[in-house]
Amino acid sequence: MSLKTLALRPAPLFLLGVLLRVVLLFYGMYQDAHSALKYTDIDYLVFTDAARLPSPYDRATYRYTPLLAWLLYPTTLPGFFSFGKTLFAVADIVAGYLIWGMLRKRGRAMESCGAFTAIWLWNPMVATISTRGSSEGLLGVLTMALLWAVEQKRISVAGILLGLSVHFKIYPFIYAPAIIWWMDDANLGKAAQGEDIPALARFLNMERVTLAVTSLATFVGLNATMYLISYGHDFLQHTFLHHVTRLDHRHNFSPYNVLLYLSSAEPSSPTGLRVESLAFLPQLLLSCVLIPLVMAKRDLAVSMMAQTFAFVTFNKVCTSQYFLWYMVFLPLYLPHSSMLRNPTLGITALALWILTQAAWLQQGYELEFLGRSTFFPGMWLASLAFFLTNCWILGIIITDGASTRRAPARKAHAE
Amino acid sequence: MRERITLIHSPEEGVDPAELVLEPARLKAPAIGAAREDRLTAALDELPSHVSLLLQDFQTLHAFTSVASKNNKNTPRDAHYFYQILDHSHLILKAYADICGDDEECRARARELNDASSLEFAYDAEKPVAKITAFWPLEERTLDITSSDGRRTEVGIMARGSPPSMEEHDIGLGGITLVLGDSKRPSPTLFKFAERHRSAEQLFQATFTQPTGLHPAIRISLSGSQAPAEDCRSYAFLTLPKTIFADRYQLHDNLFMASKNLTALRHASLPVDLEAPAYTTETWGSNILVELAPPSTTQEEWAVEVPLHLRYLEPSATGERDIHVAYPVVFWACPVEQGTNFAINPFDKVGLGYDDLFDDDTVYWHVTPQPASGGDGRLVTSITVPVVDEKAASWVGVGTAVVVGLGFLWVLWQLVRAQTNSDQEARAAKVEKKSR
């Protein structure tokens, strides 16, 4: 047995994932204690400060659910500062376990499952983000758990997870239409209902109603709890309204960035209808309607990946932490991807994704650290190049996902 | 209402009391090289109604205008601060004239304030009185003052003197004082008071570390690290316009602060939004007090850095905008020597911004600011902030729309293609099924 094969067996696979995070955690503690340049992410200080306060919203720039601050309460105790980072790292590992389980269920060989799971578990970017204390890892485990619950047909569990993740970070609402659309008789493994039943009645099956009710109840219940028991308007403002009304003028990867900066500086534009007020249209049309419609029934995991990719690509603000939102789907997408079958395509896509990002980062560095006005044309063009690269990659993912044979449907026929 | 007019001349010069022309309500003095301070004190009910109505909203209001340099700064105190690069001396002059009403002598005095080098308006609701103080630098000047009814006018002509029992850091003044209309002749005066603000005989220069980027650090280079007295701590008080701010959360970690030769952030005014661009920020700006960390062994030269952050500014034709930041106030704060009473200093100045953050029994040893070499001599540091070029506007709107549109259409086309393929597949499957 080669070393590679050995490492991809479940025990070493997860052990190495854990080890990587333990090493990074301790390295982070060392750097924080000995250097003025901190390993810990600024956001982690926001969460832990918020956990200490009577209301988490007393901490400026805390824009999350109070659940997160409560979850991190132990960080306020002496000696437990790294509790949250450990929690986020554990979330990574659990997400990896769910990925591995879903790959196994697809009938893949042990070694192949290990190799694709390693893309997540051994990914230095993923491990660094969570051990630096960014909460995005929690979203990774939530979305994987949601997909797992749907695939296991544990509909109530899926509903609760969907409601919880939307409460946590809003964007997972894009998965609701995909999951609902996916839940037809064939995908649920049920016998097809007769043609005599009206289409609407056939559509509104028990499972779809259950998912809608449980997810809505969880979402509304959590929000009402947060609103009523303590934080009232602060909660609404910082957790939801802020994300809707914010003007993201600070430089980020989004193609809209320079446009938003320009228009934020002149609040009363005489042209009437502004481009950026329409920005949500292509974004939501793709991620909530068209992609689920075309892809969800064929391959739910790849549909969710494409939706997330579209949502992040067309978003009005885009930072590298958002990339984690779709990277968690990579192990489930790559096995059938043309980017893996055709290495030239795969390497070209990866190279373009990295190069356009690097071009933007270089412009960002000149602006942020050297004080050069690179907003236009350098940074603007780089963000557009990155955007077009992402659109191209999204096209590949869509083509791949839509060409997947409806495996569950075949299974239903076989029964 | 009362006014106090003080001339301070050098000990070598002086006014022969015989040369003073004292009429009951008028005093004339011959030319003398002296600095002059005028102070008008009016109770709230002596103020014109529009001024007193305005002041009712304030606990304290303190405005200071240094006219000579045209660089003015309202000195912050309590909850109400303003910081504007505006010359608002005309407001103080208008207030003075309004207080005078129909009193022509008083209005004449108000007009004299036009060429004062600094003007100060102070109101304290606890007293409640408003004070207008004007100052003229050392210059050859004559005196011709007339008092009027309802206004008590006191005049003092003094020089540095040495009353008995002078201690170190005491200032002694001696000369004559008189009250117009009351005094038949000038009465000799000799008194002393303790200096609250002293010179530490150290120098500093403030510059921004290069390159400034979007996170510039102001570097304060000092010429000595020796404390002027025992139990002193050194501080820098920064008054920042709203274009630049300090992140109070960043100035927290001990290692980070130590790496900048800082001890701690002792005060930061609120609110300070940590993200908003300058053009949507309504707060005037902010100020912070940082305690410095002088080297443990005395050094000739040392420096501290205060990390700051720029807000986004409005687009400009050049892709850049210059902002100006006033020099910080750098000083040692020390406990006062036993038995010192600052209250008897008739010229004591409070409400300078930082003094509210210390006990009343604090002595300030000031480090003398040195303007940057090659500059215009003002105590201001400037940085060039990168902003988006105005020319971008015509391209970015259309360009972004076109590119986003193209990207969207591409993805849309891929979706249509995928859907068509799967429809064909489905039809083929049906045909296959039927043909079986």
TrEMBL record, chain A:
A family per Pfam: Mannosyl_trans
Biological pathway: Glycolipid biosynthesis; glycosylphosphatidylinositol-anchor biosynthesis
Single GO term (MF): GPI mannosyltransferase activity
Keywords: Endoplasmic reticulum, Glycosyltransferase, GPI-anchor biosynthesis, Membrane, Transferase, Transmembrane, Transmembrane helix
Keyword Transferase part of the UniProt annotation: yes
EC number(s) on file: 2.4.1.-
Location within or outside the cell: Endoplasmic reticulum membrane
Entry membrane topology: Multi-pass membrane protein
Transmembrane segments annotated in the record for this chain: 12-30, 80-100, 209-229, 277-296, 308-333, 345-362, 374-398
Gene Ontology biological process terms from the UniProt entry: GPI anchor biosynthetic process
Top-level division of the source organism's lineage: Eukaryota
Cellular component, GO annotation: endoplasmic reticulum membrane; glycosylphosphatidylinositol-mannosyltransferase I complex
Homology family: Belongs to the PIGM family.
Function: Mannosyltransferase involved in glycosylphosphatidylinositol-anchor biosynthesis. Transfers the first alpha-1,4-mannose to GlcN-acyl-PI during GPI precursor assembly. Required for cell wall integrity.
Protein name in UniProt: GPI mannosyltransferase 1
Organism: Emericellopsis cladophorae
From TrEMBL, chain B:
Membrane topology: Single-pass membrane protein; Single-pass type III membrane protein
Subcellular location(s) of the protein: Endoplasmic reticulum membrane
Domain of life: Eukaryota
Chain coiled-coil ranges: none
Major localization class: endoplasmic reticulum
Function: Required for proper folding and/or the stability of a subset of proteins in the endoplasmic reticulum. Component of glycosylphosphatidylinositol-mannosyltransferase 1 which transfers the first of the 4 mannoses in the GPI-anchor precursors during GPI-anchor biosynthesis. Probably acts by stabilizing the mannosyltransferase GPI14.
GO molecular function: mannosyltransferase activity
Name of the protein in its database record: Protein PBN1
The protein's annotated pathway: Glycolipid biosynthesis; glycosylphosphatidylinositol-anchor biosynthesis
Gene Ontology terms: biological process: GPI anchor biosynthetic process
Source organism of this protein record: Emericellopsis cladophorae
Pfam families: PIG-X
Gene Ontology annotations for the cellular component aspect, listed alphabetically: endoplasmic reticulum membrane; glycosylphosphatidylinositol-mannosyltransferase I complex
Alphabetical list of InterPro entries matching this protein: Pbn1, PIG-X/PBN1
TM regions (residue ranges): 392-413
Keywords: Endoplasmic reticulum, Glycoprotein, GPI-anchor biosynthesis, Membrane, Transmembrane, Transmembrane helix
UniProt family annotation: Belongs to the PIGX family.
